[in-house]
Amino acid sequence: xxxxxxxxxxxxxxxxxxxxxxxxxxxxxxSILATGxxxxxxxxxxxxxxxxxxxxxxxKVIAAVPEVNNIARIRGDQICNISSQDMKPEYWLKLxxxxxxxxxxxxxxxxxxxxxTDTMEETAYFLNLTVAYDKPVVLTGSMRPGSALSADGAMNxxxxxxxxxxxxxxxxxxxxxxxxxxxxxxxxRKCDTINPAAFNDRENGPIGRVNYGKVSFNNRSDxxxxxxxxxxxxxxxxxxxEVPIVxxxxxxxxxxxxxxxxxxxxxxxxxxxxxxNPSEEVLNVLAKxxxxxxxxxxxxxxxDGPVTLDAEVDDAKFGFIVADSLTPQKARILLMLxxxxxxxxADIQQFFFxx
Length: 355
What we know:
About 35% of the residues lie in helices and about 20% in strands. The protein is of the alpha/beta class. The chain has two domains: about 30-230, 3-Layer(aba) Sandwich (Rossmann fold); about 245-355, Rossmann fold (3-Layer(aba) Sandwich), CATH 3.40.50.40. Helix 4 packs parallel to helix 9. The longest helix is centred in the first third of the chain and has 24 residues, at about 5-25. The chain is globular.
């Protein structure tokens, strides 16, 4: 090879290399924070329902979907590796602290959290209240492990990265991406135990769709979130107060509720029948608990509709708070954070309407 041709080859290789590096640098930086779940699980049979969740580390989960590297610069981080029924507030706090650190130091343009589906809605809402930035935070998972026929995890992860990479996803609060649909953290809930189309927002529906990585939004939540939240935790916080949920039903034993109220709790969510209604006996127990300084929130076990102030129950008289349209499990999260920050009852009631 003559010298001129050799120099030309070197120049071409150099130019191509620089072009590739430049193109890669222009891709958004997405941090994938893994927590385990079915998306990290595996089974012995492609056609059987038995499997073990949370067996694969984040690197293996990402490696199963190499296409994500075509749309973002990917970085993986293992927060924990658990089934989501084992999710705890301590992991929520770790997630919030890590996400806020990534955004504060400008280390990521967006975050994707891989998560089990059983408590995904709770983690999403906790982060919706505690992340202090407007950059996209997206939770995803799968209803079937990667070893199953027609597994849904790979496409869910790809679509979640696409949403987290989209500029339109900014300032929309924390999102959940499952089965080609985009949901707001406040309204989303798991509505089916086995169907891949398990998630829905029964009040508002999805706020957008994502089809093979093509993102489109058609709605947004009008509730305050993330950087707008007075409950945000920019830095790691201490332990959150214990707030149990008591589920109402016909013939509930008031002594059981009384025992819970005497266990040293600071707050309680009562998932009542109908419009969050307790029986007369339980009402007396809750009224005494409120008078003793326990913050009592009335929620409902009914899937649709808000709990309204001063209907059958005189909330002003008893000092109760209503959950509005939050599910009992999300009402618990808001109350935990509000008590952690020592807000007054009137402020907490307003949070339930605003957040």
